[in-house]
Design a protein that fits this description.
Layout lengths: L2 H29 L1 H14 L9 H20 L4 H25 L16 H20 L10 H24 L29 E10 L2 E6 L9 E11 L20 H5 L4 E7 L10 H13 L3 E6 L3 H11 L5 E3 L2 H7 L5 E6 L2 E7 L4 H4 L2
Parallel strand pairs: 4-5, 5-6
Antiparallel strand pairs: 1-2, 1-3, 4-7, 7-8
């Protein structure tokens, strides 16, 4: 095999490998742009750039769409040079970002493959380093690019895919994602996903105690604490190794008077509707007339109906009066609520802890016609 053929083979391998990674990464994020926007909010908070949080959804839509279009460009030989420069631009941004995440752990999951595949920060950085090598091969070998289509047709093809991607993203934002990668997808038995198996890896922490004596501070381990002449100042906990974490690890329903009713609701023998309001302040109140009718219908059939929110109890009664709600409002962690359903408000139907249905607020008519 000649050097030229080796070079061409290496270029093609690099082209399609980079294409597949970008198509997969872009697609799973376009399926759930809301999840990507939530992840961007985490990044902005970690960087102290809270002023950019209102732009999270817009930036998420642009980034997800760009990744998918870059992948399509490389995969289908549509203006490959655009795909190469686009991939290079994103990798120049992603690689140092993921190195920073690996070193600081400020954001525990980069979100590079949405919620479809979870990688550690170091795994993500190493993945990006390898991908950088293939992108570099494409950049150096870009003169080999050949396409049987005229440039006009290639541009038209990219434009058509751009329209498709935009519509696809719009649908997944306006309704529930067409593919649910979350741990609360339809058919999930929630209690089973909360179990920690016997012999599971346990977390390991390093605990350091800081004491002071005669103006001098010193660190001690828990096995080597000082005598009573030292004054305690502070305690530092550092996670050395993460333990096993079940897919659902933070599902806890608390009443306003601080009673845990999680088990009661998950073990209820009949159907239970759970209205998810991740934030009372940000929820869309336009659809609460429909929601109230669904609650009345549920009660008439002997089902229970509860609202879950992260907002504080003092906000509940004001909100209840505003939307004319007569159902109980309980509390749950906001991140958990956003994980349960990509809609605020959103509706889940469970029975004996199993998710039977999920509805975006724009699709509540489907519940009323059940």
């Amino acid at each position: 095999m000649s050097k030229t053929s080796i070079s061409k083979a290496l270029f093609l391998i690099s082209q399609y490998l980079v294409a597949l990674v970008f198509v997969f990464s872009g697609f799973v994020k376009c399926v759930d742009p809301t999840g990507t926007a939530i992840k961007m909010e985490e990044y902005f908070t970690a960087f102290g750039m809270d002023s950019l949080i209102p732009l999270s959804m817009t930036l998420a839509l642009v980034m997800c769409g760009a990744e998918l279009l870059i992948g399509v460009s490389l995969l289908l030989n549509l203006r490959v040079i655009w795909g190469i420069w686009g991939a290079l631009a994103l990798m120049v941004f992603y690689t140092p970002l993921t190195l920073w995440l690996a070193l600081t752990d400020k954001v525990t999951d980069c979100g590079c493959f949405g919620d479809a595949i979870k990688l550690t920060n170091w795994q993500t950085f190493l993945k990006n380093v390898v991908l950088d090598l293939f992108v570099l091969i494409l950049l150096l070998g870009r003169k080999q690019i050949r396409s049987g289509l005229k440039i006009t047709y290639q541009v038209a093809g990219i434009a058509a895919f751009a329209v498709f991607v935009a519509v696809f993203e719009w649908y997944n934002v306006s309704h529930l994602p067409v593919i649910d990668f979350m741990p609360y997808k339809k058919g999930t038995h929630i209690p089973s996903r909360m179990i920690i198996p016997d012999g599971a890896l346990q977390p390991r922490h390093k605990i350091t105690f800081i004491y002071e004596k005669n103006g001098r501070r010193k660190r001690f381990s828990s096995e080597n604490l000082p005598d009573s002449t030292w004054i305690f100042v502070d305690r530092k906990d550092r996670l050395l190794r993460k333990g096993y974490e079940p897919p659902i690890h933070d599902f806890s329903i608390i009443t306003p008077d601080n009673q845990d009713v999680t088990t009661q609701i998950l073990e209820y023998p009949d159907s239970v509707y759970l209205l998810v309001i991740s934030s009372i302040e940000k929820t869309n109140t336009k659809y609460f007339e429909q929601i109230n009718r669904i609650a009345q219908s549920a009660w008439s059939q002997g089902y229970d109906f509860y609202a879950l929110t992260s907002s504080l109890p003092e906000e509940h009664e004001i909100f209840r009066e505003r939307v004319k709600a007569s159902y109980p409002i309980y509390m749950m962690d906001e991140t958990t609520l956003k994980t349960m359903i990509r809609s605020n408000p959103g509706l889940l139907l469970i029975k004996e802890g199993t998710v039977l249905g999920k509805w975006h607020f724009r699709d509540l008519k489907k519940v009323l016609t059940r």
